[in-house]
Amino acid sequence: MKARTIKRHFRESFKSIGRNGWMTFASISAVTVTLLLVGVFIVIMMNLNKMADNIENDVEIKMTVDLIADEAAVAKLEEQLNAMDGVLDVEYSSNEKELDKMIEGFGDELGLYKQDNPLRHAFYIKASDPQQTPIVAKKIESFEYVYEVVYGEGKVEKLFNVLNSGRNVGLALILGLLFTATFLISNTIRITIVARRKEIEIMKLVGATNNFVRVPFLLEGIWLGILGAILPMIIITIAYWNLHKYLSPKLEGEFFQLLNMSPFLYQLNGLMLLMGVFIGVWGSFMSVRKFLKV
Question: b or e along 270-283 (b: 16 or more beta carbons within 10 Å of the residue's beta carbon)?
Answer without folding.
Answer: ebbbebbbebbbbb
